[in-house]
Structures are given as structure tokens and as C-alpha cells.
Amino acid sequence: MIDLQNVTFIYVVFFFVTVLFSFLINSIFLKFSKTLGLRNQVGDLVRWESESKPAFGGISFYILFLLSIIGYSIMFDHTQVLLNTKLLGLIMAVTLAFLMGLADDAYNTIPLLKISTQICCGIILIYTGTYITVSSFMPLNYLVTIVWIAGIMNAMNLIDNMDAISTIVSIFIILSAMIVIYLQKDITSIYFLLLIGVLSALLGFLYFNWYPSKMYMGDTGSQFLGVFLGIIGIVYFWNFFPQQSEMTSAEGIQTFSLLTTAKNATLAFIVFIIPIADTTTVIINRIGKGTSPFVGGKDHTTHHLFYLGFSNIKIAFLFMLISSFSLLFVYIINALIDTWTFFHFGLFIIYFLTIFGALFYSTRVSKRKSSNEA
Question: Is the whole model's pTM more than 0.85, yes or no?
Fold first, then answer.
């Protein structure tokens, strides 16, 4: 039997060592940035700031991710890595996303290559057994999985539009998953150490990414985080199943299944509330204007909040506050609500729609304010 105190000690040491490693490796990358990795030098790229800055953050994320896997193999059971098909699928998908992001940072690749790679990541996950279960009809599950993975990868890329925003959002998504794992008493899982490793990478990077930033994560980082967090979303939110129902009637089983799906969807949407709300808002507004959702622009919720008078730092703290509420609600849903009902579903959906509505409305108010000033 594994000693919980020893495991906790290992995790604490691993966390502080990896945070320090993340800080040091980003410091080294920053010194190399005079000749490598600069963004904003390509005219087609649209960034909030015009100044060219290195985009090395994603490389440190991937390195810490690999070190976490190696560390788990050394400190715990290596067979959980070598014989775990789902984990191997995660490694393959994350590596593919990382390489695609790296290519995009270097060559500014076309959107078709991005979406094709994102779909491939979803297919790899499905083939290795990681997919969202919303129905007994498997093709629907596969379709939802691919849409989710591609959607989150694009969403994480889109919200990387202002200093620290994507980093903060990712940190709180990881903390939400860690709470679920802790409440499940499954902290010896390899996923827990992976989350610690990526969290450490983000915290070390945040020092350089906080306003005024010295470094961006680039597509290398946003694509890595998109697929990694998307997978975590599947494992610990979309597929969070409560204990099996004792109902025997067909109607009771159907209602229970519907409630389970509603709970899982609620968890996923609450945890990913900011990337989902921002991306959906941008898509709606751009389609309304007849422009492509896939072309970069300064029309995100973060930008419109800035137009309304919020500073970069205030926007970062606002998103941190929203993420903190979501983190609290994840704890409440998993630890304090024994029986999930449609009332709970409606209550938390109101929270999601309130945040979405406020962010969406800010883009409309900002437009009207700009028009009046003109």
C-alpha cells in the first residue's frame, strides 16, 4: 500500500523543483530570443501588442510534460506508462499538437493544416480509447469528441491574445481537475503528476508572460495546452460518472442517463467557461460582420474590455476572478451535491449564461461606444 505522506512529499518536492526549472528554462530561452523565436515579424500575424517578442513558452510546457512522465515512471509504476493505451494516445496527440504549433510559430502555416492536425489529434484519442460519452450511439460520441478537441485547441489559441490571459485560464482549468482527482482519492494517478508538471510550467512562465510580458507562449504553447486540457476535460469532466443508479425501469434509467450527461456537460462548460465564451462571441460577431472566424483580429472579449476602460492587469484579474468562481463551483458540484437534479443543472447553466452574456454584451457596448466617439 502506498504511503500517502510519502506521495504528498514527492509531489511537493516535484512541484517546487519543476517550477524552478520552468523559470530557469524560460530565462535561458529569453536570452536566446535576440535571434530565434520572435513573433510579430510576419505581417499577416495579428497581436494585441505591436512589439516583437519571443514565443518560447510552449517549449517549456512540453519539456515539463515529458519530465513528468519520466518522473512518474521512476518514482511510481512504469507499467502505467508503457502499458496504458490511453496515456500513449495522450502522448501522441500532445506531441502532434506541439509539433504543429512549432511549425506554425516558425512558418505561419495555413488554417487548413491546423484544423487537419486538430482532427487527427481527436482521431488518435478515439482510437486509443479516450472519447466523450454522451450517447449509446458511438458515432455521435466520436463526433462530439473531435469537435471538443478541435474547439478547445482553437479556443486556447484565440484567447492567447493578451498578456497572461491564456496562462491564467489554463492554470485554473488544471486546478479544477486536481480538485476532482483529490476528491476521488486518486492522487497516485499519473494524470495528477502530469497536471502538477504542466501547472509548474505555467507558473514559471507566468512570471515572463505577466503584463508587460517579456515572452509569449506562441502556437506551440496554445496548441499543446489546447489538446492537453481538452483531454483532461474529457477524462475528469465530460466522463465524470457518479455511482451507478439502482433504478430498474427503462424510464428511470433514461432519466438517470440524461442527468449524468447534464452533470458532465455542466462541469465541462463551467471549467472551460472563458475560452468557450470568448470563442463563441468572436465567431458570432465575425459571422455577423461577414468576416472569417479563422482570421486573427483585435475583437476578442479581452480587447473590448480594454476599449471600455479596463487595463491589461484589470482584465487579467477579472478573468482570474471568474475562473476562481468556476473552481469553487467544481468543488461544490463534486463534494457537496450528492444527488444531481435538473434544478442544479439549471442553476449552474444560469451562471454560465450570465458570464457568457456579460462578455458578449461587452463587445456590443464597446462597439456602440466606439461609434459614438467617432
Answer: yes
Q: How many domains is the chain built from?
A: 1
Backbone angles phi, psi at 38, to 5 degrees: -75, 140
Q: How far apart are CA 14 and CA 22, in angstroms?
A: 12
Rounded CA separation 117/223 (Å):
10
Residue with cell 457537496: 336
Cell of 275: 475560452
Read off the pLDDT of residues 125-155 as tens digits, 9 standing for 90 and up.
Answer: 999 999 999 888 899 999 999 999 999 999 9
Inter-residue contact 193 to 68 (CB < 8 Å): yes
Q: What is the DSSP letter of 237?
A: I
How far apart CA 265 and CA 252 sit, in angstroms, is: 20
> Is the preceding omega at residue 212 within 30 degrees of 0, hence cis?
yes
Q: Give me 24's grid cell.
A: 530557469
In this structure, the chain runs to a length of 374
Neighbours of 371 (CB within 10 A): 8
Distance (Å, rounded) from C-alpha 313 to C-alpha 286? 26
| CA neighbor of 30 nearest in space, from 55, 52, 51 | 55
State in Å, rounded, how far the first CA of the chain is from the last one. 70
Q: What is the pLDDT of residues 244-275, one digit of tens each?
A: 444 344 444 455 478 888 889 999 999 999 99
∠ Cα 323 131 80 (to 5°): 90
Report CA Rg, the chain. 21
Return the bridge partners of 38, or none: 54
Strand extents, DSSP E, the chain: none
Range of the domain at 320: 4-373
